[in-house]
Amino acid sequence: MILRNDLNTHLDELLAVSRFHDYCPNGLQVEGRPEIQRILCGVSASQMLLDKAVERQVDAVLVHHGWFWKNEERPVTGHRRTRLATLLNHHINLFAYHLPLDAHPLLGNNAELARHMNWTITGRFAEQDIGFLGTPASPENAATLAASLEHFLNRKPLVVGPLDRPITRLAWCSGGAQDYFEQAIAAGATAYVSGEISEQAVHIARETGIPYIAAGHHATERYGIMALANHLTQQFGIECEFADLENPV
Predict the structure, then answer these.
(1) pLDDT band for position 78 (50/70/90)?
(2) In terms of Cα–Cα distance, which of 83, 71, 18, 9 is closest to 46?
């Protein structure tokens, strides 16, 4: 068992929350019961995940994508009311960590993607050092790298640009990081991996000859929260279960 406030302090310090300027509040977003023994983890705080939290009688939900996003509608109505009522009625805490979990050098989404894919990390790029730079474990081109990602993530990536160009410097940033593509190119990347791709990024890939591999927003952001859950179990002995809810994006 760990006290809610102690868990919040530990996670905030571990993930260096204070150094990030984010689009949402990081940390405790909804207050529930003060003592925590069981946590359900997931990528996003969707109603499906909350229903599983109630079913499993957990004390807290820990996610990468929480609530209260910048420029989001403020009224707590419709699905927002239903989500919030689910937590409050069952006294369940909600913790969410967005950019801090993307960027963490050991437990983050990008670090974990590199670890699982056996990529060597050599540097960072983009705002707040969110993006990672490195090299594949063996000689790759866009076609073979996409095939490796499909095998690991169990999701077929979308590849734009030349399939046969050798990858000597890889850049990656999980989730919806299509806006960092040009910064990756400026950092010397010969291929870029992210979760999503925008319409304009398609043209940039074609015109620069730098392959863009969109491997899935949800698919590329499962592993940070899983690593964080494992950390909490090892550190405090509390039960942390990860629910991998299918998402086609």
Answers:
(1) very high
(2) 83
Which residue do the tokens 């969109």 mark?
214
Contacting residues for 195 by C-beta, under 8 A, at least 6 apart: 174, 175, 176, 177, 214, 215, 216, 217, 218, 219, 220, 221
What distance in Å separates the CA atoms of residue 244 and residue 43, rounded to the nearest whole number?
8
Alpha carbons 50 and 87: distance in angstroms, whole number: 7
pLDDT at residue number 23 = 93
pLDDT digits (tens, 9 = 90+) for 106-143: 999 999 999 999 999 999 999 999 999 999 999 999 99
**Res 239: pLDDT:** 97
DSSP code of residue 157: P
Which residue segments constitute the domains of the chain, with CATH numbers given? 2-98 (3.40.1390.30), 104-218 (3.40.1390.30)
Q: Which helix (H) or strand (E) holds 61?
A: strand 60-65
- Indicate the DSSP class of residue 128: G
- According to DSSP, the residues that pair with 134 across neighbouring strands are 121, 170
